Amino acid sequence: MRAVAKFWHLEDGKVHCDLCPVGCDLKEGQVGSCGVRVNVGGRLITFTFGTVTSAAIDPVEKKPLFHFYPGHLTLTIATPGCNLHCRGCQNWQISQVPKGAVFENSAFEETYIDPSLIVEKALESGCKSISYSYSDPTIFAEYMIEVAKLAKERGLFNIMVTAGYINRDPLEEINRYMDAYSIDLKFFSDEAYRKYSKGRLQPVLENIEYLFSTGKWIELTTLIVPRFLTEKQIRGIARWIRESLAPWVPWHLSRFFPHYRALELPPTPEEDLFRAYTIGKEEGLEHVFIGNLWGNDYESTYCPSCGEILIRRRGFHVEGFYIKEGRCPSCSKEVKGFF
Predict the structure, then answer these.
(1) pLDDT, tens digit, for every residue of 83-98?
(2) Are residues 105 and 123 in the same domain?
(3) Is residue 329 in some structural domain?
(4) What is d(CA 326, CA 36) in angstroms, rounded to the nearest whole number?
(5) For the whole model, what pTM was predicted?
């Protein structure tokens, strides 16, 4: 449904979108890079307020979040559109909205779910949180904020799964209602960001640092994309996490499979995933995980001090939880997270 967007201003007769670093300047009737925000009558209109195209009950490990109340269920929602354009997007059918589709597809006008209904469905389903994901929730910031406000009032947690490509003012407002973030740190090269995602590195780094400074729980994910993500970048990311955040921040290394406009790329070789894991440990990170590779030994949480298994996982499922009062049961080392 149509709604007046937040985070914009008029400049030289155009609507300037202040939501993200893309910074679209839109003439009357012009659609933004995201595909879902339009200058209508000198106002920025979002065409997807409450247009929920995907909803599912997931284990929180699927976000992925491994140290935020492990094993709980989260209701995950998304609306169409995205402010990045990743070549290998696996959800491209909903994220990469063609220019003009908001005017031609009646679903954008006729589909609407009230924020209160999302919250009620989460509670009825026994979920402990609501997650905003699948497409990047930056692009449905207004709807996310309204749902998240109600969710907090009803005792639910809020989780934003995002690429972190957003401006500071909207992020600060969103952060008032979020409890945890799963953030994609895709590359450690501005060139790679531009070529693969049509974005830039620095805003992402600055936003991660900001959110970490506010004390919200953060876990990072890097998709190991062949030919775009080099070993030098992988080491740079690991070192940056340790030096700019903390060695205990969980880092998820995810296997790439070809989708959308990256069909010429191969799946990530398994040895590249294990090499990235080794680099993370060499750089002093305490919790490094390998995802999208079924049944590997690095899905579980181990004590960084004594090596004792702390949370046993298989895929997205917790098979054993052994942390005692936030500490390793064998050596008493503190384990960071919400348990």
Answers:
(1) 999 999 999 999 999 9
(2) yes
(3) no
(4) 43
(5) 0.97
